[in-house]
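Throughout our pipeline, every protein is held as a single compact record rather than as scattered files. Such a record has a labelled line for the sequence and another for the backbone structure tokens. This encoding replaces a full spatial description with a residue-level series of whole-number codes. For reference, a complete record is included directly beneath this paragraph.
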Amino acid sequence: MTITEENLTEQIKKRNEKAITFIIQRYGGLLSAIIKRHVQFNQQEYEECLDDVLLAVWYNIDAFDGRKNTFKQWIAAIAKYRAIDYQRRLIRTTQITSNTEYNDAFHSNPHTQAQHELTDILAGLSAADRELFEQYYLQGVPSRELAQQLNVQESWIHNKLSCGRKKLKQLFISKSEV
């Protein structure tokens, strides 16, 4: 049977494993973005969190109510809260108690491989765009708050982030061709 958006929840309830494949294909990018936003620079935690999200969907599909929200919204919420839980666990295990200390500890050790990679990646952006990327993606500052700080529309923030991502993508493509 072909799995579609309409019969997805029914197929999960029937324990059709192809439904998980459909979720990964359909919502994998969304889940990845949500998890990576919270579980920064830790591939193992990211993979474990993604697995945990898929298991949570698999075992808790009966909790989904299509009248309250869409499946996409429901799975995004699960991913967000699982990723936050993983971030908290990561902070606890490294004995860092606050988000500010976590970011400070990361930035204070410039010799880490991740820091070097990040610096190289963001070097292709202007100073203002780099600061915007760091605040939004690394520090987790919401776009609404950034817009208020810069006294601009929230859509402007999203446009700048989008243009920056496109620029970084072009830089990656040009580097891989060399």
